[in-house]
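re: that complex we talked abt at group meeting.

here r the seqs, copy pasted straight from the sheet so there may be weird spacing, ignore it
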Amino acid sequence: MASTSTVTVPAPGKSVWDGGVSPMNASYGKLMMWFFLLSDAFTFSALLITYGLVRSSHKAYEGAVDAFTFSQTYWPIPEKVFEAVPFFHGLNAPLVFVGLMTFILIMSSVTMVLAVEAGHRMDRKAVEKWMLWTIIGGFTFLSCQAWEWSHFIHGTDGGSILADGTKIFGANLSINQYGPPDFAAFFFFITGFHGFHVFSGVMLNFLIYYNTVTGVYERRGHYEMVEKVGLYWHFVDLVWVFVFTFFYLV
Amino acid sequence: MAHAEDAPQVTVLPPDTAKIKKLWTVAGILGAVTLLEFAVAFGVPHEMKDLRVWTFILMTIVKAAYIVGEFMHLRYEAKVLLWSILIPMVFVVWMLVAFVYEGIHIDLARP
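got the structure back, here u go
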């Protein structure tokens, strides 16, 4: 700095660094939630990008889509793997169940944002109602995922025949009937890590619901915790949007 | 609560109908884009792989923008917060491109 110029020194206690102001106009907790979610986004990106690397390093299925059969020699077409629906055994309904799961998660994101809106108005009854719907949505999604995992692990009626003639059903971490071993490994890791996030989210949502019902936030004078946990819950929905595209559609 | 005098005086404001309507509109858009993805998944043949993949990626970005911008309210936060979240994502995009490219070449190098 040039020595001739006059420097305006702010009066003590008036600088941004002296406290009393929120950097980025957001509260400490909200800001930290945002940066946690950014780091979590890196983790999920790493998983999905590794999936992209491994998938593109395997041979893709070249023949006609209708004639597709499971084989260890090429990567399966996802819609041929995920085509079962609970209570409709034998029905060929590609991606219908996973579409339903997507819809459930989007709806629970909507009820969450309505709970945040009710919190801004200090409307305890409405926060309770919408938080309860969000928890139900989260549990429904988890139940769907449990069914999907169970079906994936146990396999189809026909199974799949290996090159040496042995017949295998379903999937585990070392071998599976759908395609190369990595296919099932990535299914377990990516949907499992996401499912664990949903589970943690439901737990946090329940905590928020409990605190709302017992009037903690009413006494505190604001419902910012609903907003912070809401950010996490929307993030879980956001990740599912990417998992849905890159694991089930592409 | 046991004592009535402990109860805080809370003023409950009426629902912000314009805001709630907007949130449902966003939900409708998310649902519609997902249905559109289904239409592409079953309407566009697998032979047109590039078209399928790029439409899926585009629609995913649209959905992500609505979730982050509206539901997570990032669009209305201070610009410095918005950019400190979005700019680091550049690395993710680059990493994706680099690794998928790498994967294709691993496949080509395999006997």
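couple things i noticed - Chain B has two domains: 18-76, 78-111. The two ends of chain B are 74 Å apart (CA to CA).
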